[in-house]
TetR family transcriptional regulator
Amino acid sequence: MAPVKGNIVKRTRLSPAERRAQLVDLGVQLLAERPLEQISVEEIADQAGVSRGLLFHYFASKHDFHVELVRHTSRDMLERTAPDESLEPMDMLRGTIVAYVDYVTDHRDTYLSMLRGTASGDPDMRQVFEDTRTAMVERTVAHLPRIGIDAGPAVALAVRGWIAFVEDTTIAWLRDPQLSREEFVDLAVAALPALALAAGGPSVTFGRSNRPDVTFGHDAGT
């Protein structure tokens, strides 16, 4: 494997927390350049200026190190896509989707590697993905009342389906972008109220306006 570009870090004394953070940061940098399974702990140790044995002082195994890289990346994605509560409800929802699409576009190879690569079949990795999806569901459900949706159990379940829909269609769009970015964002945003209606909640129709029209499921077709 070709060496990573850049200079090897001169070994310095760091606190345990700082050293662990350094190792993770180096791993995340490599994750932007290659699939997860191609990240070598030997290379990370060399870049950090520490021994391979010291790396395993912080991580029990290469697998544990890789899981932490995925966990770190997932946390970063959640932070970057956090809803801006200063916006109008529809703009807040759209802004979150735009941030998500931009994030996975900027980290395309990392995103595809984690969700469709060999790591996606690992139970520990799947748990990280599931925890991330759950966090996305919970924060979406928490904001639904702002757009006129009563987030009961059926709607909450529909939101989980919407998260899966956005995730899967984003992967398909990255691989074959037949829609423009704006068209894809429109599709992802519009799918949420559509699923809410199917779950028995209100139907929220909107375009680029800040004022959604809200009609309730049993009345929507009358």
The CA atoms of residues 118 and 181 lie 28 Å apart.
